Amino acid sequence: MPIGGPKPRVLLASLLLRPGSVVSTDRLVEAVWGGARPPDPLGALRAYVSRLRAVLAPLQHGERLRYQAPGYVLAVADDELDATEFARLVAEARDRASVGDPGRAVTLFDAALALWRGDPLAEFDFAQVNADIARLADLRLGASEDRIEAMLHLGRGHEVVTELDALVRRFPGRERLAAQLMRALYGSGRQAEALAVYRDLRRRLVDELGVEPSEPVRTVHRRLLEHDPTLAPAGEPATNLPRRATAFVGRDQEMRRIDTLMRDARLLTLTGVGGVGKSRMALEVAAALDRSRFPDGVWLCELDPLADGSPVSHVVATALRVRQRHGSTIEQSVIEYLRSRKLLLVLDNCEHVLDASARLAADLMANCPGVVVLATSREFLGVHGEQV
Ligand SMILES: Nc1ncnc2c1ncn2[C@@H]1O[C@H](COP(=O)(O)OP(=O)(O)OP(=O)(O)O)[C@@H](O)[C@H]1O
Ligand SMILES: [Mg+2]
């Protein structure tokens, strides 16, 4: 914007940072000249104001830059400044989060944070307005933290690990971020790394400030060590089962039988010819089960779309949102993740990838005592312990 040297720009920045509010002439003079005032500061200020008005003229509807005792107001409509829109979206997002709707909150936080491009008011890098600019940056960081909190509540901590890691590096003293990173890592089955975050934070605080981490961070740390289930995401039931689209008829007897078998068997395979209704029955059974038996959820792994012989573990990893761990194969990562979990896996349509499904099921039976598998397949898997 061609408004001349730094002084008129400081004036504009001072007004822009408080859109719609009167900024007193005292304050403006202080911002623009500090201790080095011209002989007639108010006159000089008026001169700059008219220069600004000329620049703003093309954007004018009504008077943009208005005198109103004891100062000046920059008139902007609510939807004209992205900073205002940002504040509105963040307020709405926080509101949704506070009433237990983290999904909607995340959508709104995303919309708010998407309004940011680079650093705020980077073209006004003057000491006089730095404090205000820092305040804007702080709002952004707070919104990012609240968005991450909502993601953690949704059980989507693994999706924010990378972002959190970068934030913790950038703001190493910000304890809330460190606590969030610990929870996100723990929720992704990365307990050792979660504990390392705590160790780093504590070392820094003790060395540099001689203080221990704050109580909230210590609580997260204690819960990590105790495998406290409250660290698991609250709220939404953990499942990716589709909603039922059409009515399910008959099959009462079979349903009861499956229910009985599932009490004891850890691997149950529904077999039958194509189209007889195996997949449908498995979904009905899974949806009707007593979820308290599976605190870590009920997860459908649809193997139908796989080409023959493709890695079943990838489908499972995607369904469970498990990431491949450094130095491990995806198979190992999945088993590692499931080792300590209590959940039901529905492996649907195994016949396409019978060998790979059987290997995975055998691995699960051997290593993951809390995992129950309900499989559907035209042929049974042939795994030790399988009920058909
Ligand atoms: N009891 C039922 N009530 C209503 N619809 C059913 C029932 N059982 C199956 N269906 C429907 O019949 C169709 C075929 O069933 P499904 O896909 O479950 O068969 P399948 O045995 O898994 O077949 P495939 O071996 O080819 O995988 C689906 O559209 C399913 O919704
Ligand atoms: Mg099927």
Instruction: Report the radius of gyration as a whole number of Å.
Output: 29 Å
Give the CATH level 1 class of the largest domain: Alpha Beta
When the domains are counted, the total is 3
Q: What is the ordering of alpha helices and beta strands? A: HEHHEEHHHHHHHHEHEHHEHEE
Give the helix level as a range of percent: 40-55%
Low-confidence stretches: none
The name CATH uses for the topology of the largest domain is: Rossmann fold
Widest sheet: strand ordering: 5-6-7-4-8
Content of β-strand = 5-15%
**Number of distinct beta strands:** 8
Q: Please give the alpha-carbon distance between the first and last residues.
A: 75 Å
Name the average pLDDT.
87
Keywords: DNA-binding, Transcription, Transcription regulation
Domain OmpR/PhoB-type: 1-76
DNA-binding region: 1-76
Organism: Pseudonocardia alaniniphila
Q: Outline of this structure?
A:
The chain is an alpha/beta fold and 388 residues long.
Can you give a write-up of this model?
There is one protein chain. By secondary structure, this protein is of the alpha/beta class. The chain has 3 domains: 6-74, Winged helix-like DNA-binding domain superfamily/Winged helix DNA-binding domain (Arc Repressor Mutant, subunit A, Orthogonal Bundle), CATH 1.10.10; 155-236, Serine Threonine Protein Phosphatase 5, Tetratricopeptide repeat (Alpha Horseshoe), CATH 1.25.40.10; 252-387, P-loop containing nucleotide triphosphate hydrolases (Rossmann fold, 3-Layer(aba) Sandwich), CATH 3.40.50. The chain is 52% helix and 9% strand. The protein has helices at residues 6-16, 25-33, 41-56, 82-98, 102-113, 127-153, 161-170, 175-187, 191-209, 215-226, 252-264, 278-288, 312-320, 330-338, 354-367; strands at residues 22-24, 65-68, 71-74, 267-271, 298-302, 343-348, 371-377, 386-387. The strands form 2 sheets. It has a 5-stranded parallel β-sheet with strand order 5-6-7-4-8, with helices on both faces. It has a 3-stranded antiparallel β-sheet with strand order 1-3-2. α8 packs antiparallel against α9 and α13 packs across α14. The longest helix is centred in the middle third of the chain and has 27 residues, at 127-153. The site of adenosine-5'-triphosphate has 15 residues, from α12.
